[in-house]
Amino acid sequence: MTTLRDDVIASARQMSFEIHRAIPADHPSLAGHFPGAPVVPGVVILDEVADALAEWRPGYQITSIGAVKFLFPLKPEQSFTICLTPANSAGMEVDFVSRVEERTIVEGRLQISPAHTKNMAGTPSEAPTFDPQPYDPRLTQWLQGYPASVFSERLYRSIELMERYSIDLAIDLLARLNVVDQLDEWRSAKQLCQALSHQPRFSSVLDWLLKRLLETGCIETRTDGDTRVYCSRHALWKPQLAHLRAIGLDIDSANAPTLDLLDQAAKLYPAIARGEQNAEQGLFEPQAILLWLNYFQNENLTYAVNNWVGAVLAAERLSTRSKLRILEVGAGAGSGSEILLRWFDERGLLSRIERYLITEPNAFFRRRGERKLATQYRDLPLEWRALDINSAWASQGVSDGEFDLVYGVNVLHVAKDLLFSLNQARRALADDGWLVIGECVRPYVDQPIYPELIFQILDSFSNVNTDREIRPNPGFLTVDQWRRAFPCAGFQSIQVAPQIDRIREIYSHFFTAAICGERAAGNN
Questions:
Q1: How far is residue 130 CA from its own chain's centroid?
Q2: Phi and psi (nearest 5°) for 342?
Q3: Which DSSP helix (H) or strand (E) runs through 328?
Q4: CA–CA separation, 409 vs 418, rounded Å?
Q5: Which of 425, 429, 354, 348 is nearest to 392 (CA)?
Q6: In what order do the strands lie in the sheet with 187-188?
């Protein structure tokens, strides 16, 4: 088996490329931008980024630019740095950051591909070897506040494996959905669904599968008006699912539940596309419940990491309180509760808990968590109850101002009306109380991440109210979107941990964060 391309992998192993630039004062774009106070247009900065890419990777071209954020203006003659970093081991996505001294002025992501003639037909290319970049030592420094066993080399390789596994699953699914043969010309996901008689609502899922494969370099994209269209560039490689699964289990045998759930979800895609099956039925049928129970266990680090970031931040926010009244929402089978209690015990906070109300709407998961935790923590004032985050909490027995901490792990991103549910959480808090959530987060806007292959086919995941600024699409939010949502719901002192803004610049597959906000005294 060969690597993706020797030249791509050689470049990908260079952790970054950095170059210094300055736009001269007589640049023609500055004449009217703006008289008396000239500012370098954003398109000029992006041209410099493109030139930097050409110097770093001769023979490659930009196929699209996504998730661009212009944060601060650049003045003529002002020296700035362009840093390019591979976003994945396939080498077809590149993150870029432009800085003036230590201040980031522009950041975003490039989709790139070799600048040679399209070859649609022919023998499929050989699958690239799974060969992730070395673990960046800066991650250890930025994650030192967490148990060393959590953010480990093992977790890093597991996440890289899941990302690659989801790519090969996407290749397999496009073949099973008969999409590959339709990509000989530019088509949108909606047009593909129409051509193949798939359900119209499946177009968002199909769009995700196509975006997932952009980093392979085998599919390219462009935007026609407001519509993203796709076309094949090279024959896709033959999926290596069995081989990748063996590697994943060799990295950590506890990766099995995540791989199993990815496979179970993928099996449902063709029937869902044809309108023959509902995802909720297929993923929550009796035979599949064990998959979820195994997936949500804390032995499965690819999931448990979400529990840990939330628990650590909650303990920090409450460390000075003499008494603790806690409400947990969407607790599932109790893995988040378990880590929170374990960490509180290590930090000497367990004895301060006066009340801990653990809520979960699914009776089976709720009873499962209750049996385990009630036995493990017999002396703690633990309670269990159902709570629907999409209905008024006060009508379900949660009084205003009753708790010092409202806590949840991977639940609020599926709130039907996000601001409504955030406001309900704020109302449940006493003055100076904290909302702390552990969430799977999208590093950059519109970036596909592997857990979505499981969840995006669920109505509860996709059938939510969207908002251009806070939640433009269903599913996981970026940390910037969470930062905008919390103040809109009346929270102050917003904090995100760990340092996602720095981490994503060197590692774009870091999907975990905790977000917290405080209810100000007297804020009704």
A1: 21
A2: -65, -45
A3: strand 324-329
A4: 15
A5: 425
A6: 187-188, 227-232, 219-224
Q: What is the Cα–Cα distance from 238 to 314, expressed in whole angstroms? A: 45
The amino acid occupying position 293 is L
For 102-137, letters b (16+ CB in 10 Å) and e give: eebbbbbbbbbbbeeeeeeeeeebebbebebbebbe
Q: Where in the chain is the domain with CATH 3.40.50.150?
A: 302-519
Write the CATH number of the domain with boundaries 6-114: 3.10.129.10
What is the pLDDT, as a whole number, of residue 9?
37
Cis, bond preceding 498 (omega within 30 deg of 0): yes
Q: What is the pTM of this model?
A: 0.79
Cα(9)–Cα(434) distance, rounded to whole angstroms? 45
Task: State residue 249's pLDDT score.
Answer: 96
Q: Measured between alpha carbons, how far is 312 from 497 in angstroms, rounded to an integer?
A: 9
Q: What integer pLDDT is reported at residue 124 of this predicted model?
A: 66
Q: Give per-10-residue mean pLDDT for the chain (524 aa).
A: 38 65 86 76 88 85 80 91 80 86 90 60 74 90 92 95 97 96 94 96 96 91 88 92 96 96 96 94 88 94 96 97 97 97 97 97 95 95 97 97 98 97 98 97 92 95 92 94 96 96 90 95 67
Distances 396 to 385, 389, 428 between C-alpha atoms, Å? 9, 10, 12
Every domain of the chain with CATH number 3.10.129.10 lies at 6-114
Tokens 């740095």: give the residue. 81
pLDDT for residue 487: 96
Q: Say how far apart CA 408 and CA 398 lie, in whole Å.
A: 15
Predicted local distance difference test score (pLDDT) of residue 274: 95
Strands 429-440 and 403-409: parallel
The arrangement of strands across the sheet holding 80-86 comes to 17-21, 80-86, 93-100, 103-114, 60-70
Q: Which amino acid is at 110?
A: L
Q: What pLDDT does 119 receive?
A: 46
User: Which 3 state secondary structure label does DSSP give 109?
Assistant: strand
- Bridge partners of 230, per DSSP, are 187, 221
Length of the chain: 524
Which residue spans within 380-449 are E strands per DSSP? 382-385, 403-409, 429-440
* Angle, vertex CA 217, rays to CA 216 and CA 218, nearest 5: 90
Q: Give the model's pLDDT for residue 498.
A: 96
Closest C-alpha among 406, 404, 440 to residue 424: 406
CB 453 within 8 A of CB 169: yes
E runs forming strands in 154-198: 187-188
Which of the following CATH numbers is that of domain 302-519: 3.40.50.150, 3.30.10.20, 1.10.580.10, 3.40.109.10? Answer: 3.40.50.150
What does the alpha-carbon distance between residue 143 and residue 444 come to, in Å, rounded to a whole number? 20
Report how far Cα 497 is from the mean position of its chain's Cα atoms. 14
